[in-house]
Amino acid sequence: MLVVTRKCGQSIIVGDRIKVTVVAIGVDQVRVGIEAPPDIAVYREELYQAIKRENVEAARVPLSSAGPNLPQPLPRVEDVSPLNGRGDDRP
Which of 1, 52, 79, 87 could be joined to 75 by an S-S link, Cβ 3.0–4.6 Å? Predict the structure, then answer.
């Protein structure tokens, strides 16, 4: 782990796409601002761990037990009746 000392308003750069800035320093906490591109997810660690736990639990649940709220699969092309030549299914 890299440990750095920063004052309020100072930043560190991670790679070339992420900037972490010390925004405020309190008695028992430090506020940081994180600038990252939209394709990089940024989470507080406790939220990230909760998401991981939920994903593991969701992977354990068989799809058949998820109930009727699951979207139904689309029909196969062979099972769909052909259109009437006008681009719709009107008689």
Answer: 79
Three-state SS at 20: strand
Which of 29, 2, 25, 24 lies closest to 13, judged by CA? 2
Return phi, psi of residue 66, to 5°.
-75, -15
Q: Structural domain boundaries of the chain? A: 11-62
Torsion of CA 57, 63, 67, 73, to 10 degrees: 140
SS3 state at 10: coil
The model's pTM: 0.60
Give pLDDT tens digits for 35-59.
Answer: 999 999 999 999 999 999 888 888 8
